[in-house]
Automatic annotation (TrEMBL):
The lineage of its organism: unclassified sequences, metagenomes, ecological metagenomes. InterPro entries: 4Fe4S_Fe-S-bd (IPR017896), 4Fe4S_Fe_S_CS (IPR017900). It comes from bioreactor metagenome. This is 4Fe-4S ferredoxin-type domain-containing protein. Residues 2-31, 33-62 form the 4Fe-4S ferredoxin-type domain. It holds the Pfam family Fer4_10.
């Protein structure tokens, strides 16, 4: 399972991460910033991190409990 680290201050709302997410984990809020709709559905493909032109999102492994 992964953890999404989202830096909304870097997000310009280009929608690239939302478009390329195969599981539709991400969306844009009313301010045009990314947020995780359903982080539990993330498959750690890394498409959001790879394609974000502003380095606003990172996929990191969740810590074991």
């Amino acid at each position: 399972m992964s953890k999404l680290i989202i830096r909304t201050n870097r997000c310009k709302g280009c929608n690239v991460c939302v478009t390329f997410c195969p599981k539709k984990v991400l969306a844009l809020d009313t301010l045009g910033k990314i947020y995780a709709v359903d982080e539990a559905s993330c498959i750690q493909c890394g498409q959001c991190e790879l394609r974000c032109p502003d380095f606003a999102i990172r996929v990191a492994p969740k810590e074991a409990k």
